[in-house]
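Quick one, T. Sequence first:
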Amino acid sequence: MNLRKWVREMVAVMREEDLAEIEVRRWFTTVRVRRPGTDPVMPIQAAAPAETQGGSGERHDADGKPPANLVPIKSPMVGTFYRAPAPDADPYVEENSPITVGQTVCIVEAMKLMNEIESEVEGRIARILVENAQPVEYGQTLFLVESDTAA
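Structure tokens:
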């Protein structure tokens, strides 16, 4: 994700949540945005929310879960996310693509091993929350699938 897009998303989160200041740290990069005329606030240590990490604009309820008909596909391991089997190949899925149970949706590379991630739900890809070749954490939501039946 380029820095300009990242800052825009941070400003949008600040406006939505009525924040005076926001700071996001990812790997070796730290970005802090503060509204003019506000005093610095005490830092709060917290994991970056999915909206900041993956750029998702989806609304979540009080428990942090996506809406009932959106089922997350999460990373089962730490690694690097790839949307396609090779750099010159088409992605496994696109937004609005129909998927079936057992269909490969992406690859997570961990320790030079390419692990195919399969869907556990049937439906339609509503959102792709991670950019290609980006690092992912264990349990990080990669996709949101619109499904009539919850998993």
